[in-house]
Specification:
Blueprint lengths: L3 H4 L13 H11 L3 E6 L2 E7 H10 L30 H6 L7 H6 L14 H4 L6 E2 L5 H11 L3 E6 L2 E7 H9 L4
Parallel strand pairs: 3-4
Antiparallel strand pairs: 1-2, 4-5
Amino acid sequence: MTKVRDLMSTEVVSVAPELTLRSAVELLAARHIGGAPVMAGSRLVGVVSASDILSFEASVPVVPALGPEATEWELEPSEEWREGDEAPGAFFADLWPDAGGDVAERFEETGSPEWDMLAEHTVAEAMSRRVITVGPDATAAAAARLMTQLQIHRLLVLDQGKLCGVLTAMDVVRAVGQKRL
């Protein structure tokens, strides 16, 4: 029977809770991984995934850039819009100069919080504190059932309380593809 120790990755990439989300994203992308254990020194305190970071980013309101001070709103009668005219939403784009910025521009211009929210927040703010672990001698089938049941993509492998590996859904898929499972 195949054990977790036979499939897990032992070269574990971990991150610190105080690491910025920008640095965490860059690390995950560079290492081609979807998540990592969060370690405070030698103590396991959480796990962060690309999904956690995306969920966090989607939940944090964007800080608009300051526009010109307006003392009172002037409402003008609505005019019929014709194709080729300036879009009606242009009024709001004038209030926030970054409102029309495209994605490529946002990646290049990261000097303010509304442009680089990931640099303003840490892994501790986005990570999952609920860590699901297995032992290295658990069966691969049991680990796969646990991942399926909990709808997670990785299990942290602890041996006598110490992090010794990570088993991902991709590790299980690779083993099936190689006919090891």
